[in-house]
Amino acid sequence: MNTPTLLTRAGLLGLALFALASFARAEGAEKAEKPVPPGVLKKYDKDGDGKLNDEEKAAWKADREAKHKADLEKYDTNKDGKLSPEEKAAMKADLEKKKEKKEKKAE
Fold first, then answer.
1. CB within 8 A of 68, min separation 6: which ones?
2. Distance of CA 34 to CAs 30, 31, 37, 87, Å?
């Protein structure tokens, strides 16, 4: 293989890697800009600046993990550490019942 061919291949590889890295950065930026749901802001934005700082995000994450653990304890009937489709259906049915009760109280 001669030097110009080797340099061409190296250049194309470098260009491909650059494009891949640029895509990864752009994708990461989109995830970082995802808006926080209003209900979450209302509950966790303690300083009232309209966004979550690291401490507020940590509190939100801890609550989500605690809820996930509680859901597993309640609905994971076979105790395999994950929810099967049937277990998820039971959880969804309970959530729908709670939603209906809440809507009836609001009337």
1. none
2. 7, 5, 9, 30
| Cβ neighbours of 44 (radius 10 Å) | 18
Q: Six-digit token pair at 8? A: 């061409």
Tokens of 24: 């990864």
Predicted confidence band of residue 55 (pLDDT cuts 50, 70, 90): very high
Q: Return all residues near 43 (Cβ < 8 A) that are at least 6 apart.
A: 60
Tokens (6 digits) for 45: 């934005």
pTM of the model: 0.57
Structure tokens at 5: 């061919």
Among residues 43, 35, 73, the alpha carbon closest in space to that of 60 is found at 43
- Structure-model confidence comparison of residues 81 and 18, the more confident one: 81
Report the alpha-carbon distance of residue 24 to residue 36 in Å, rounded. 22
pLDDT tens sequence across 2-14: 555 755 766 566 6
